[in-house]
Design a protein that fits this description.
It comes from Steinernema carpocapsae (Entomopathogenic nematode). It catalyses: [protein]-L-isoaspartate + S-adenosyl-L-methionine = [protein]-L-isoaspartate alpha-methyl ester + S-adenosyl-L-homocysteine. Its main location: cytoplasm. There is one protein chain. This protein is α/β, with parallel strands linked by helices. A 7-stranded mixed sheet has the order 5-4-3-6-7-8-9. A two-stranded antiparallel sheet has the order 1-2. Strand 8 and strand 9 form a beta hairpin. The N terminus is likely disordered.
Length: about 250
C-alpha cells in the first residue's frame, strides 16, 4: 500500500513538471476559462483544486490582467505568481489539505493563494498568510472581504504581518507550508514548524549554479528526518527583509 502511494506521488509530480512546460499558455477571458485551461493543460488533476480556484476569482486579488497566465505586479516590489504556479502549488500540497489541516502561506501578497488554501481545509482548518509589507496585509484583507469575508470571520483564514522567514509558531505544527519567495536555503525554523508527515514547497536559490532557482518539496518524516525533492526550475522574487525589498528601485 505504501509503495503504491509512493508511485502515485512520483507520477503526480512528473505530470505536474511536464504540464508546466505548456502552462504559460493557460490564459482565459474569465476566471472559469482560466481554470479550465489550467486543467486542460494538466497543471492539476483533481476536482478539489478545480473547485477552489473556481470559487476564488483571481480578479479580486490581481489588479491587472488577472486571467493572463503570467506574474503580475501588486506593488512594493512584489508580484502575484502566475496562475499555473498557484495551481501547481495546490496540487502538490493537495494530500495535506484536509479538513482540520493547519497551513502556512509565507509571502501571502494580495491574498489569492491563501484564500484558495482556506477553501480546501474545511471549517475546522486554519490557514495563516504571513506578509511583511503592512500595505499588502491591508490590501489582502480588503481583497478577501470582497467575496470571502466568512473565512476571516470564522477564523479559517488569518492574515498576519510578520517576517515569514521565522514562520508563525502560534498555529504550528503545520500540515502544509507554502513559501512564495526564493530562500537562500530551506529555513530550519520552517522545518521545525512542519508537522511530522507534513509537506513544504518553496523556491530555493541553487547556490549560484546555472540552474538558478529550484522549486523544492520537503516532506517531514520524523523530527530528525526530512526528504527533499527537486521539482523544477523557477523564477521568484527573493525571500528577504522589508528594508531590502522596498529599498530596491521598481
Amino acid at each position: 500500500m505504501l509503495w503504491n502511494q509512493v508511485k502515485q506521488q512520483i507520477a503526480a509530480t512528473t505530470l505536474i513538471s511536464a504540464a508546466l512546460s505548456m502552462a504559460w499558455r493557460s490564459h482565459g477571458r474569465s476566471n472559469s476559462e482560466l481554470v479550465a485551461a489550467l486543467q486542460r493543460n494538466g497543471v492539476f488533476q483533481g476536482e478539489r483544486v478545480h473547485d477552489a480556484m473556481l470559487a476564488v476569482d483571481r480578479a479580486d486579488f490581481c489588479p491587472t490582467n488577472p486571467y493572463l497566465d503570467a506574474p503580475q505586479t501588486i506593488g512594493y516590489n512584489a508580484t502575484i505568481s502566475a496562475p499555473h504556479m498557484h495551481a501547481a502549488a495546490l496540487e502538490l500540497l493537495l494530500p495535506k489539505l484536509n479538513n482540520g489541516s493547519h497551513v502556512l502561506d509565507i509571502g501571502s501578497g494580495s491574498g489569492y493563494l491563501t484564500t484558495c488554501l482556506a477553501k480546501m481545509v474545511g471549517h475546522d482548518g486554519v490557514v495563516v498568510g504571513i506578509e511583511h509589507i503592512p500595505q499588502l496585509v491591508n490590501l489582502s484583507i480588503a481583497n478577501v472581504q470582497k467575496n470571502h469575508s466568512e473565512l476571516l470571520d470564522g477564523g479559517q483564514l488569518k492574515i498576519i504581518e510578520g517576517d515569514g522567514r521565522l514562520g508563525y509558531p502560534s498555529e504550528a505544527p503545520y500540515q502544509a507550508i507554502h513559501v512564495g519567495a526564493a530562500a537562500e536555503s530551506v529555513p530550519q525554523k520552517l522545518i521545525d514548524q512542519l508537522a511530522i508527515g507534513g509537506r513544504m514547497i518553496l523556491p530555493v536559490n541553487a547556490n549560484g549554479s546555472r540552474n538558478g532557482q529550484r522549486y523544492v518539496q520537503v516532506d517531514k518524516i520524523s523530527d530528525s528526518e526530512v526528504q527533499t525533492k527537486d521539482l523544477m526550475g523557477v523564477i521568484y522574487v527573493p525571500l528577504t527583509s522589508v528594508e531590502h525589498q522596498i529599498g530596491r528601485r521598481n
